[in-house]
Amino acid sequence: MTDLLRRAAALVPGDARSDAGCTSADVREYLDHDEWEIALDLLGDFDGIAWQTSEYWKLLAAAAEELYLPSKWFHWREAETRLGLIRADLQLVPSTRNPIPAQGVLRPLWHVGGGDYRVARMWIESKPELEAGGRAIVRLTALSPEGWRHLAPGAVITMHEGQPVAGTATVIEYAGVGETRQRDR
User: Fold this and answer.
1) Could you tell me the residue range of the domain that residue 70 belongs to?
2) pTM for the model
3) Which among 36, 42, 77, 135 is placed 20 to 30 Å from 71, CA to CA?
């Protein structure tokens, strides 16, 4: 597991900073003191979809699994690296049947404009579930990214689980594969 984390740390650019301001050197210092869980948390805290490879997230997922820690988030980020990142502010309609779990199990249809309906997995940020009528920031992983490329912040898309509309979302961030995220520019 130490090898997995050291290999992941080696993939972090020298000028990259985590949300807490840490560098890959800080990660290596924690590894030198056998603080594997802290090192994993720090590595997962780096932003920058343009430099994070599928390999990077796979290493973090494998390390989490060896530590018997949840790995779903790392698998999710690996998919974002391959398929792109869409974040949106979603407002569900009050008549939504059941709460929606946070961790990417739902694959609703999204009307993305021009008569197109597309499928995307959804991850709800900062909540274990989204209740009927609730609002949250969501991350979408499009199963066919080419159909989403026209989206930009401010675009409005609708979520469907049948008829009528189940929710309305405003895109707040879009980064295609290999693109720099807005907050990293």
Assistant:
1) 2-80
2) 0.87
3) 135
